[in-house]
Design brief:
415 residues; Rossmann fold; binds ligand SAJ
């Protein structure tokens, strides 16, 4: 069977490679020439453990090829981005374009699956009407459904296989046929339901995490205000069998948690109070980090170095990164800053020489806890710096060790 995967991003590419590895003939479609040129050489341009080896293997075996337009296939998978616009409403342009782009290739008996995280109703109200242009009967001549991805960037290949999946079919037959396809590589259970339930489930999962992080971020502010160490409070609270607080931090980034809860707010604005407030709380954290910086140094002539700007550790993704927001605020307030992140290649002002970067710095901000930062020689760093301050926004470094070598270490949310 032949599969056409439209969108070769963080989700489309690993899914395409996985299906190709299971024996399907897969065509990956993307409009980005750089992605296609690399893919057809067996290479990837994103940072994701083991994905490079898998892609290389299936491209060499000719099971996966990249094209810039869709083609005739038995199964179509749409995995394109669903961002939000400035009014915090879903921008469905890519989903609409992708669906339109496959219409002339869809034939009787084919299966069409949407994977992109989308507002509730997308499959029935956007995908279905577009596919009706084929004059084929939806659910009878062609099978349509929604199967959201649930993988964690950094662990994509592992979670693609191990996680349970939810498939929402436009009718039962569609759901069963789609579940069978995923069964080829998913070891977890595959639950079948209707499309709206599956769409809602995906949004709820990410909202759950966002709301819980917001609670911890709010606790951080409260603890700061009453002079208590929030990390101790979280540690002790989590000793309770039914409490599991998440980590506070500089804010919530990435293309999922910072976006998806807004789809729920959009659908029921007067009812989604906690969800909206959580988004606002998490979005307020970069400003709160700035306030923490200003408590440490209030002199615009001093240089600040930021270590790590991605939205979370050990990835190269800076989409919605709260540290990028913090950088913006620091710049607006005329701080001189230098930026170091070994995972990020093309960000304005990024420096790939750590020692050059910290030269003359008054303050070091740990923006994200990349694992490689543990191996930094902080003694050497301190010597190159002008001052001796560290602000850790991720609770990632050893206070005692740093203080022993002469740093003044400040962890957010601690006294
Ligand atoms: N974060 C905190 N505190 C925490 C955990 C995370 O501040 O305790 C921050 C991170 O630093 C990061 C953001 O939240 O900025 C999101 O990171 P994440 O690791 O929680 O999640 P993502 O965005 O990489 O992936 C999420 C996952 N969803 C859930 O865990 C419910 C993943 O399973 C989804 O597939 C993915 O969204 C998606 O694509 O929807």
């Amino acid at each position: 069977k032949k599969i056409c995967v439209v969108g070769l991003g963080y989700i489309g590419l690993p899914t395409a490679a996985m299906l190709a590895n299971c024996g399907y003939d897969v065509v990956g479609v993307d409009t980005n020439k750089e992605v296609l040129d690399n893919l057809n050489k067996g290479k990837i341009i994103i940072e994701e453990p083991y994905l490079d080896d898998l892609v290389k293997k299936v491209v060499i075996n000719k099971k996966l090829i990249g094209l810039n337009t869709p083609c005739e296939a038995d199964i179509f998978i749409i995995a394109v981005p669903t961002p939000i616009n400035e009014n915090k409403r879903a921008d469905m342009r890519y989903v609409i374009n992708a669906t339109n782009s496959i219409v002339s290739y869809v034939k009787k008996g084919d299966i069409v699956i949407l994977e992109s995280t989308s507002p509730v109703g997308t499959t029935t109200e956007i995908i279905k009407p577009i596919l009706e242009k084929t004059d084929l009967e939806i659910g009878k001549d062609i099978y349509v459904g929604y199967c959201p991805e649930r993988v964690l960037p950094g662990k994509i290949l592992k979670e693609l296989v191990e996680n349970h999946r939810v498939v929402g079919g436009i009718n039962e037959e569609s759901a069963i046929k789609i579940a069978k396809i995923y069964k080829s590589f998913v070891k977890g259970h595959i639950y079948t339901t209707d499309t709206k339930t599956a769409e809602m489930t995906k949004l709820v999962e990410n909202t759950f995490r966002d709301v819980n992080i917001a609670l911890s971020n709010e606790l951080l502010k409260i603890c700061d205000n009453i002079n208590i160490n929030v990390w101790d409070v979280i540690e002790y609270s989590n000793k309770h069998p039914r409490v599991n607080l998440l980590n506070p931090g500089p804010g919530v980034g990435g293309h999922c948690l910072a976006v998806d809860p807004w789809f729920l707010v959009e659908s029921s604005p007067n009812l989604s109070n906690i969800i909206k407030l959580s988004r606002i709380t998490n979005d307020s954290m970069p400003s709160y980090m700035f306030y923490s910086v200003e408590k440490l140094i209030k002199n615009t002539n001093k240089k600040i170095t930021i270590l790590g700007i991605t939205y979370k550790p050990d990835v190269d993704d800076i989409r919605e990164s709260p540290i990028i927001e913090l950088i913006k605020i620091l710049k607006e307030n005329n701080y001189e800053i230098s930026i170091y992140d070994p995972y990020v290649k093309n960000y304005p002002g990024i420096e790939n020489n750590l020692m050059k970067c910290v030269q003359g710095s008054e303050l070091l901000i740990i923006g994200v806890n990349h694992n490689v930062f543990k191996d930094i020689n902080y003694e050497k760093v301190l010597k190159a710096m002008e001052g001796n301050l560290i602000l850790d926004t991720r609770n990632s470094l050893d206070k005692e060790e740093l203080e022993k070598i002469g740093f003044v270490y400040k962890l957010i949310g601690s006294k």
